[in-house]
Amino acid sequence: MQKPKIVIDNLPEESFFEIYKDEDRMLINHQIRNQNAEKQFLERGIIEQSYFEHVKFNQSDFYRLELTDSIFVGCDFSNCKMEEAVFYRCEFRNCKMLGINLNGAIFNNVLLDGTNMQLAALNQMKVKDTMFNACNLKDSSFAENKLQGAVQFEHCEIDQMSFYDTSLKHVNLSTCFFEKIDVEERLIRGMQVNATQAAQIAQYLLGLRVEY
């Protein structure tokens, strides 16, 4: 997975609202910290080589936002709408994305680390070379997605997560935690799980009772 091409120490500290002053709604080579940008509306904005730390974007609508080579640390995207957004070489560390809508988005070389994504809508997406690490994806929907390259889930909470109409071939869930996930028998061939998870899935799909 490729990392963002960004040198944080060289970035001037600016305001997120500078993006509205640009005719093309572009924000490039900025460092933004400790700002409140809740309930914003931005259509087809472009953000490149920028660093965000402790910025609140709650309940904002960023339709078709394009993000490249950018890093977000401790930011809050709760209940944001980011439908059909494009993320290329981006990182989200210890962020809050509770109830976020990312339907139709494209993830290419994206890292989500320690991020709360409960109740997230992650549907009809194209996901390539992306890692979810130590994320809370409980009750989220990951349906009708096309996965390419290495799509990884490491040490994530995925209880009650739904994976309908998404091929999970080569996806490894063995380090994740769940009591039940919604999957389709025809689409889990080649998926990797541990023994306990295999018993849980067999019970859900086939009605088998496994004794230990």
Brief sketch in words of this structure:
The chain has 212 residues and is mainly beta. It has one domain (8-163): Pectate Lyase C-like, CATH 2.160.20.80.
Explain what you see.
- With 212 residues, the chain is mostly beta strands.
- It has one domain: E3 ubiquitin-protein ligase SopA (Pectate Lyase C-like), CATH 2.160.20.80.
- It contains 1 helix and 9 strands.
- Strands 1, 2, 3, 4, 5, 6, 7, 8 and 9 form a 9-stranded parallel sheet that branches.
Q: Could you outline the blueprint of secondary structure elements for this entry?
A:
Elements: E1 26-28, E2 31-33, E3 46-48, E4 51-53, E5 66-73, E6 86-93, E7 106-113, E8 126-133, E9 146-154, H1 195-206
Parallel strand pairs: 1-3, 2-4, 3-5, 4-5, 5-6, 6-7, 7-8, 8-9
InterPro entries: 5peptide_repeat, PA_immunity-related
Pfam families: Pentapeptide (PF00805), Pentapeptide_4 (PF13599)
